[in-house]
Amino acid sequence: MHCDLHVHSRYSGLTGIPLLDQVARECYSDPLEVYDRARQRGMDLVTLTDHDSIEGVVRLAHLPDTFLSEEVTLELDAGRELHINAYGIDERQHRELQARRRDPESLFAFLAEERIPAAVNHLFSALTGARELRDLLLPLGRLPLIEVRNGAMPDGHNQQARRVGRASGMAPVGGSDAHSLAHVARAFTTVPGARSKQEFLAGLRVGRCLPAGRSGSYGRLTTEVALIFAAGYAEAVRDLLAGRGSALRLSLCAALAPFLPLIPLITAAVYARELRFGTAVARGFQSAYGWPRASARPAPLGASLGEVA
């Protein structure tokens, strides 16, 4: 069975970009539209991994080939973060995960006690901001799964995640990380031999899973940014015409419209930074720890390392 294990809907919240963080969403896709697109592209099961929310995926819960998941923001010191997908959860477990997401030890213990299949996402990406290299050690060997085929990440990021995951005994998973309908199910996870969602989730728990699909690219990033902007502008117009929107929100979208031709230049800079960040983190990680190697294991968590921005 196939399932895209990292995909967003309009319930992923507002973007963290300055000036837009009060009016623009990270994603404008309706949950049912995501469901339909995933099924059209050959997914046997569908879930959503919205940021710290199950509001969107609950709207799919009446469908027999869906299950609840979320992307948990694990908050570390000084504003640093890791993102962890938790699959096959219920509403009680969602509440517990949110209550524990500022306490790594408590979060990892709860995931283990509840036997929740969980994966650390885009470990070598700049998306979660500056971090200390030792932050990367926190989930390694502590979670059963690691995302090694993220459809939005450069192939180098995914390959490095595969190497550290293999060295720490974590099973590989994949997902599109789609914030627009265009990229849903472009990367996904297969559990060979599974015939139901219960068997699929059981396969994740024991690591009997395979990632598939495409890594990200500059073209993917550029397309997605343009589609998100277009969707946001269209929603602002619809809401204003329906009497439930904000003229300020529409004015801000209109003010940004002249910058649309610059999107390829902006995304080129973002993508170049992503490549540099991933390379720097991978080299720093290996230099500091002499790892990953098949015979090596992580150094103690107390090891002193500088911050990578």
In words, what does this structure look like?
- By secondary structure, this protein is of the alpha+beta class.
- The chain contains nine helices and ten strands.
- The protein has helices at 31-40, 55-58, 91-100, 104-113, 155-167, 197-205, 218-241, 247-256, 263-289, and strands spanning 2-3, 69-75, 81-87, 118-120, 131-132, 145-150, 171-175, 187-190, 210-213, 307-308.
- α5 (155-167) links the parallel β6 (145-150) and β7 (171-175).
- α7 runs antiparallel to α8 (247-256) and α7 (218-241) crosses α9 (263-289).
- It is globular.
In a few lines, what is going on in this structure?
The protein is an alpha+beta fold and 309 residues long. It has helices at residues 31-40, 55-58, 91-100, 104-113, 155-167, 197-205, 218-241, 247-256, 263-289; strands at 2-3, 69-75, 81-87, 118-120, 131-132, 145-150, 171-175, 187-190, 210-213, 307-308.
CATH level-two architecture = Alpha-Beta Barrel
Secondary-structure-based class equals alpha+beta
| Strand portion | 5-15%
Count of β-strands: 10
Kindly identify the CATH topology.
TIM Barrel
Note the overall shape. globular
So how many helices? 9
Uncertain runs are 294-307
Radius of gyration: 19 Å
- Please state how the strands of the largest beta sheet are arranged side by side: 2-3-4-6-7
Distance between the termini: 39 Å
The CATH superfamily bears the name Metal-dependent hydrolases
- Main sheet record: 5 strands, mixed
**Mind telling me the CATH class?**
Alpha Beta
Q: Specify the helix fraction band.
A: 25-40%
- Mean pLDDT across the residues is 88
Q: What's the number of structural domains?
A: 1
What is the helix/strand order?
Answer: EHHEEHHEEEHEEHEHHHE
